[in-house]
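Work package 3, deliverable 3.1, input record:
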Amino acid sequence: MTHLTDREIVDQLDGALPAARAAHAVECARCRAKIEWFQESLARAKAVDIPEPSPLFWEHFSERVRKGVADAPEPRSSEWPWRQPAAWRWALACALVALFVGAGAWRLTRNAPDAATNVVAHSNRGGPTSADDRSSPDAAADDDRAWGLVQSLADDVEWSESVPDDLGVRPGWVERAALDLTDDERDELLRLLKAEAKRPGA
Amino acid sequence: MGRVSPDWTIRVGGSSAGPAPADRWVGVDDEGLIRACLEGRRDAFDGIVERHRRQVYQLCYRYVGNHEDAADLAQDTFIRAFKGLRGFKGQSSIATWLYRIAVNVCLNRLALKTPRPEPLLEDERADLHAVRPDAVLLREERAAEVRAAIQRLPRKQRATLILRVYHELPHEEIAAILGSSVGAAKANLFHALANLKKLLR
């Protein structure tokens, strides 16, 4: 059986060593000697008392503490602030506000027009497409040939002209028009649009 | 002949002979005293000081080995305890909580200054030769040697030895006070006793 470890020696001094190990401590001369060695040290330490201060010292001591306490601020918590009830109430209030704001934003997003309509609306503004725009989420759609056609068709529609004739562009109309074209019509339209795009100032 | 009462009162330690501030709180337990302090009754803290000052002072004395420093450290311990009273959640006894503060105060103080030598070692020894029998003298000399040896132990070993041997705290509480594991607390005690024995040879 292995000899007692340091911690087991301490347990033995406390009288808390399990029976099997305590039996070893009795049988093993080396462990027994070690335990006796530590018991001597413990006994010497325990035998020592400290000089008792005079009774007047305690009165004086309490008075000193009383003065120190009188000068001290009100007792405060050494805990972290979020463990205090007030902090929890504020945190809960902030969380609820964030939840309402998030829910409102989600509802707005849900009721907004879909991506295709956004592209049309963007194109209706008629402004030139900058290089930066290519990095936007819409840029991927612009690379698609069908979407390019849709954008081109939308560019041809002038808002100022369409309104008097009651030709307002409504969501989905341009997409439907593009889908109604034949393959040849689409190719021709694409050729025209490319030529238009290469024109200086386009 | 009728008795004449004096028209003055005896003052001890700067206070009147009437009931000491701590006496008002004699029947109140530690929890009640803390609650009263937190409600603004600062005098309730006198009751806590009265109950625990001796143990706290002794812990500090064993740590630094002289009366002056021990008194300062014990005072500092109680003032810190008052300031952080709201942090006491009752998960341990108030005595353990005060020991924890006292140990931290002692560790911090020792990091800043070298402890004074124990006065008993030389001066008081000379007095003992003059007035006491040999057996008492020998016992006092040995006690002084042990106290001096304890002060030479590494800081955590010293704290562990003091808390375990003189204040009889369980290893779990010692570990909590020193911020270590129970195993480390036991190992500290083992090494403290071994070093003490070597120092006392």
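Residues 78-82, 126-134 of chain A have pLDDT under 50 and may be disordered.
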